[in-house]
Design goal:
The chain has 171 residues and is α+β, with helices and mostly antiparallel strands. It contains three helices and eleven strands, in the order ββββββαβββββαα.
Protein backbone atom coordinates (compact mmCIF):
# COMPACT_ATOMS: atom_id res chain seq x y z
CA UNK A 1 0.00 0.00 0.00
CA UNK A 2 1.33 3.40 -0.90
CA UNK A 3 0.73 6.60 0.98
CA UNK A 4 1.96 10.12 0.57
CA UNK A 5 5.01 10.96 2.69
CA UNK A 6 5.88 14.29 4.24
CA UNK A 7 7.44 15.52 1.01
CA UNK A 8 4.71 14.14 -1.29
CA UNK A 9 6.80 11.08 -2.20
CA UNK A 10 5.28 7.61 -2.29
CA UNK A 11 6.26 5.54 0.73
CA UNK A 12 5.78 1.80 1.11
CA UNK A 13 4.49 0.96 4.61
CA UNK A 14 6.22 -2.43 4.60
CA UNK A 15 9.70 -1.01 4.07
CA UNK A 16 9.28 1.90 6.47
CA UNK A 17 8.11 -0.32 9.31
CA UNK A 18 11.54 -1.54 10.49
CA UNK A 19 13.03 0.15 13.54
CA UNK A 20 16.57 -0.54 14.76
CA UNK A 21 16.30 -1.69 18.37
CA UNK A 22 19.88 -2.64 19.21
CA UNK A 23 23.21 -3.65 17.74
CA UNK A 24 23.83 -6.83 19.72
CA UNK A 25 27.27 -8.42 19.45
CA UNK A 26 27.75 -6.86 16.00
CA UNK A 27 24.33 -7.72 14.57
CA UNK A 28 21.40 -5.34 14.13
CA UNK A 29 18.15 -6.38 15.78
CA UNK A 30 15.21 -4.60 14.19
CA UNK A 31 11.54 -4.52 15.01
CA UNK A 32 9.19 -4.77 12.05
CA UNK A 33 6.07 -2.93 13.16
CA UNK A 34 4.13 -4.13 10.11
CA UNK A 35 4.58 -7.83 11.05
CA UNK A 36 5.11 -7.09 14.77
CA UNK A 37 8.25 -9.22 14.96
CA UNK A 38 11.88 -8.79 15.89
CA UNK A 39 14.30 -9.62 13.08
CA UNK A 40 17.99 -10.24 12.71
CA UNK A 41 20.02 -11.31 9.72
CA UNK A 42 23.42 -12.91 10.21
CA UNK A 43 26.09 -13.77 7.68
CA UNK A 44 25.51 -16.70 5.31
CA UNK A 45 21.88 -15.64 4.84
CA UNK A 46 20.84 -17.04 8.22
CA UNK A 47 18.09 -14.97 9.79
CA UNK A 48 15.77 -15.08 12.76
CA UNK A 49 12.31 -13.63 13.07
CA UNK A 50 10.37 -13.86 16.31
CA UNK A 51 7.88 -12.03 18.46
CA UNK A 52 10.35 -12.49 21.32
CA UNK A 53 13.33 -10.13 21.59
CA UNK A 54 15.19 -12.61 23.82
CA UNK A 55 14.73 -15.39 21.24
CA UNK A 56 16.48 -13.25 18.61
CA UNK A 57 19.33 -12.48 21.04
CA UNK A 58 19.66 -16.21 21.81
CA UNK A 59 19.81 -16.92 18.08
CA UNK A 60 22.71 -14.45 17.79
CA UNK A 61 24.49 -16.01 20.78
CA UNK A 62 24.11 -19.50 19.31
CA UNK A 63 25.21 -18.29 15.88
CA UNK A 64 28.35 -16.65 17.32
CA UNK A 65 29.16 -19.74 19.39
CA UNK A 66 28.75 -22.11 16.45
CA UNK A 67 30.75 -19.96 14.03
CA UNK A 68 33.51 -18.78 16.29
CA UNK A 69 36.88 -20.40 15.84
CA UNK A 70 38.93 -19.11 18.75
CA UNK A 71 42.64 -19.84 18.60
CA UNK A 72 44.31 -19.69 22.02
CA UNK A 73 47.21 -17.25 22.43
CA UNK A 74 49.60 -16.07 25.11
CA UNK A 75 49.88 -12.71 26.82
CA UNK A 76 52.43 -11.32 29.24
CA UNK A 77 52.82 -8.29 31.47
CA UNK A 78 52.62 -4.95 29.74
CA UNK A 79 55.83 -3.32 31.06
CA UNK A 80 54.18 0.10 30.97
CA UNK A 81 51.77 -1.15 33.64
CA UNK A 82 53.23 -4.12 35.57
CA UNK A 83 56.35 -6.15 36.08
CA UNK A 84 55.08 -9.17 37.92
CA UNK A 85 52.59 -10.93 35.65
CA UNK A 86 53.67 -14.28 34.23
CA UNK A 87 52.76 -15.40 30.74
CA UNK A 88 49.20 -16.66 30.63
CA UNK A 89 47.24 -18.50 28.01
CA UNK A 90 44.01 -16.93 26.72
CA UNK A 91 41.70 -19.81 25.82
CA UNK A 92 38.41 -18.13 24.98
CA UNK A 93 36.16 -15.13 24.97
CA UNK A 94 32.83 -14.91 26.78
CA UNK A 95 29.54 -13.60 25.41
CA UNK A 96 30.11 -10.33 27.27
CA UNK A 97 33.47 -9.86 25.51
CA UNK A 98 35.74 -10.74 28.44
CA UNK A 99 38.72 -12.99 27.82
CA UNK A 100 39.08 -16.29 29.64
CA UNK A 101 42.54 -17.40 30.73
CA UNK A 102 43.79 -20.79 31.79
CA UNK A 103 45.95 -21.02 34.89
CA UNK A 104 47.59 -24.25 36.07
CA UNK A 105 46.89 -23.35 39.72
CA UNK A 106 43.48 -21.67 39.51
CA UNK A 107 41.98 -23.23 36.37
CA UNK A 108 39.85 -20.98 34.16
CA UNK A 109 39.33 -17.36 35.13
CA UNK A 110 38.13 -14.24 33.36
CA UNK A 111 40.23 -11.17 32.62
CA UNK A 112 38.34 -8.07 33.69
CA UNK A 113 37.91 -5.17 31.28
CA UNK A 114 39.84 -3.03 33.76
CA UNK A 115 42.94 -5.26 33.71
CA UNK A 116 43.14 -5.84 29.94
CA UNK A 117 45.66 -3.01 29.65
CA UNK A 118 47.97 -4.92 32.03
CA UNK A 119 48.67 -7.49 29.31
CA UNK A 120 50.26 -7.51 25.88
CA UNK A 121 50.43 -10.17 23.18
CA UNK A 122 53.54 -12.36 23.37
CA UNK A 123 55.69 -11.70 20.30
CA UNK A 124 59.06 -13.29 19.53
CA UNK A 125 60.59 -9.94 18.54
CA UNK A 126 59.97 -8.66 22.10
CA UNK A 127 61.88 -11.49 23.79
CA UNK A 128 65.28 -9.73 24.06
CA UNK A 129 63.80 -6.53 25.48
CA UNK A 130 61.59 -8.49 27.89
CA UNK A 131 64.65 -10.41 29.14
CA UNK A 132 66.43 -7.08 29.75
CA UNK A 133 63.42 -5.86 31.73
CA UNK A 134 63.44 -9.08 33.76
CA UNK A 135 67.15 -8.62 34.55
CA UNK A 136 66.44 -5.03 35.60
CA UNK A 137 63.67 -6.26 37.90
CA UNK A 138 66.05 -8.73 39.55
CA UNK A 139 68.63 -5.95 40.05
CA UNK A 140 65.95 -3.66 41.52
CA UNK A 141 64.92 -6.35 44.01
CA UNK A 142 68.53 -6.97 44.99
CA UNK A 143 69.13 -3.23 45.42
CA UNK A 144 65.94 -2.92 47.48
CA UNK A 145 67.15 -5.64 49.87
CA UNK A 146 70.55 -3.95 50.17
CA UNK A 147 68.89 -0.56 50.77
CA UNK A 148 66.64 -2.02 53.48
CA UNK A 149 69.62 -3.53 55.29
CA UNK A 150 71.53 -0.22 55.11
CA UNK A 151 68.47 1.71 56.29
CA UNK A 152 67.98 -0.62 59.26
CA UNK A 153 71.68 -0.31 60.19
CA UNK A 154 71.47 3.51 60.15
CA UNK A 155 68.22 3.48 62.16
CA UNK A 156 69.84 1.23 64.78
CA UNK A 157 72.43 4.03 65.39
CA UNK A 158 69.72 6.59 66.20
CA UNK A 159 68.62 7.45 69.74
CA UNK A 160 64.88 7.54 69.13
CA UNK A 161 62.44 9.02 71.62
CA UNK A 162 58.91 8.76 70.28
CA UNK A 163 56.59 11.71 70.78
CA UNK A 164 54.21 9.70 72.97
CA UNK A 165 57.17 8.77 75.25
CA UNK A 166 58.30 12.39 75.43
CA UNK A 167 54.78 13.51 76.29
CA UNK A 168 54.89 11.30 79.40
CA UNK A 169 57.93 13.18 80.66
CA UNK A 170 56.47 16.68 80.30
CA UNK A 171 52.86 16.12 81.38
Amino acid sequence: MLCEGIFNQPVNNKTMSKILIENYRGFDIEFDSYYEKFQCECEDGKAKESQSFSAVKKFIDDFKKANQEFKPFYVEANPKRHYDIDKIKIVGIRKDGRFVSEDKKEGLKQISDYSESNYMIVKPENEIAMNKLHDLKVKEQSQRIENDLTRNLIISELNIIALYEYKKTIV
